[in-house]
Amino acid sequence: MSSVVLYGDVYAAYGQIYVNRADGSNLGAYFSGPDGTGLIGVVGNGAVLGTGLHTGYVLLTVTMDPEDPGAALSDFEDVVEVSMTTDDERFILFCWGGEETHDLSPLPAGGTTYRLRYHARGLDQATGKVGRGIDDPPLDEYLLQIWPSRYEPPALPKLTSRSAQAMQRTWRL
């Protein structure tokens, strides 16, 4: 059974939300590296989540599960997966500059390898837009599912939006 650990508006800057020790100094290492999909990427204990909205609030739901909860393929336009290995139970989301953080710790199985499945809806309508306030209707919405799992290479179960396909092509070339 899924445990929702976050549901609400999260601030994205430069179309990015960071996890743990991630930083924006070399986005190519995340999105186009061996553990990247163009929409989400991992380096070590850090991940970068891409958003359509350039700057402003996106609607994000995060679940932590004891096992694979199954993808919500019919509810989202884009679904991608990566693995992330951590030495501790920390899981912190934050925006560029660190003005806003969401500490979702502890991870359910402590320090181990996790699968991160990132779902997106509304990427095309939000891409390049700025300034969605917290009281405005969401332009793009995301679901991040996290569960303990052995390492697997990145996967692209569903890419239907033009924006996600462009991110994939741009970062994976």
Query: How many angstroms separate the termini?
Result: 38 Å
Q: Report the helical percentage.
A: 10-25%
Number of helices: 3
Specify the structural class: mainly beta
Uncertain spans: none
Strand content: 35-45%
- Give the overall shape, derived from the CA principal axes: globular
Give the overall pLDDT as a whole number: 89
Q: How many strands appear in the DSSP assignment?
A: 12
**Radius of gyration (Å):** 14 Å
Query: How many strands, what sense, and barrel or not for the largest sheet?
Result: 7 strands, mixed
SSE succession: EEHEEEEEEEHEEEH
Summary, kept brief:
The chain has 173 residues and is mainly beta. It has helices at residues 27-31, 123-126, 162-172, and strands spanning 3-13, 16-20, 40-43, 46-50, 55-64, 78-85, 92-94, 101-103, 113-121, 130-132, 141-148, 155-159.
